[in-house]
Amino acid sequence: MGKRYFFSKFDFLFIGFNIVVAMFVLGGMIWGLVAYLRSYTEHGIEVEVPSVRGMIVEDALPILEEQGLRLEVIDSTYSEKVPFGSIVEQDPQPQSHAKHGRTVYVTVNASGKRKVLMPDLLNMSSRQAVMTLQGLGLIVDTVYDYEPSIDSDLVLDVKVDGVSIQENEKIPVGTTVRLVVGFGLGTEEVEVPSLIGLTLQEARSRLLDCHLTVGAVIRDEQEQAGQYVYSQTPRAGALILEGDRVTLRLSTDRSKADFSMEEDPVEEEDEWF
Questions:
Q1: CB 73 within 8 A of CB 106
Q2: How confident is the model at residue 270 (pLDDT cuts 50, 70, 90)?
């Protein structure tokens, strides 16, 4: 009995000793792992974030790198109150503390005004056109240019500083535009100009100069660009009322141009013998 009890007690002490040793070893491994992770991730090392607002990115980059920080441009905006290309916002904020190696995200002031595409406003009511233009960030002159037209209060043209702006042309946000609006048919007869060989925009401008407007536009091809007028109705030289419309046929094939329509044929008087 005594011998059996001695071996049982020894076995118990041996097992307990090994457990204690294993706990110490495990604790040491955990402590070493935590120390390694802290060293690897630089845990607890923070730096003060410097202010880079008002600087250009090229100047801000070395300042942040000196503090162990990175820089990334995530957005741009437009303001006339600060220099173009300068940083207007940053995250984290200046004088805050960030972990070593943290990325500072910045927003810069664009080097120029954002541009928008001019929409197709022709034959749109002036009120609707104003709302459309203002929604794009453009300024609409409160003074309109009025031209004779079959339909009154419809937009005939859009101009910037007296120059017509074509559909899909890019113009800066904040630009002031002026609408050319129709006020109905006039009472005077005008001569239809020749439009053969012109683009649609050129033809429209020439008709407006004569107090006429574009009527139906018939395109031989689907694409919008690179098409020229090759036929017009009424023909050049005809007399019609101010504000009346001229129908145009367009094609990318300039060889279709019917230059015989540039003026009405002169009827020869019958000769009497």
A1: yes
A2: very low
Domains in the chain (CATH in brackets) are 46-109 (3.30.10.20), 113-184 (3.30.10.20), 189-265 (3.30.10.20)
Token output for 99: 């972990």
pLDDT per residue over 103-147, tens digit each? 999 999 887 778 899 999 988 999 999 999 999 999 999 888 888
Backbone φ and ψ for 94, nearest 5 degrees, come out as -60, 145
Q: Which residues, 6+ apart, have CB-to-CB distance to 180 below 8 Å?
A: 144, 145, 146, 147, 155, 156, 157, 158, 159, 208
Q: Tell me the residue type at 36.
A: Y
Q: What amino acid occupies position 34?
A: V
Task: For residue 50, give the nearest of 31, 67, 73, 33 by alpha carbon.
Answer: 67
Name residue, tokens 């020229």: 228
Q: What is the pLDDT of residues 158-210, one digit of tens each?
A: 999 988 898 889 998 889 999 999 888 888 899 999 999 999 888 988 998 88
Strands 115-117 and 170-172: antiparallel
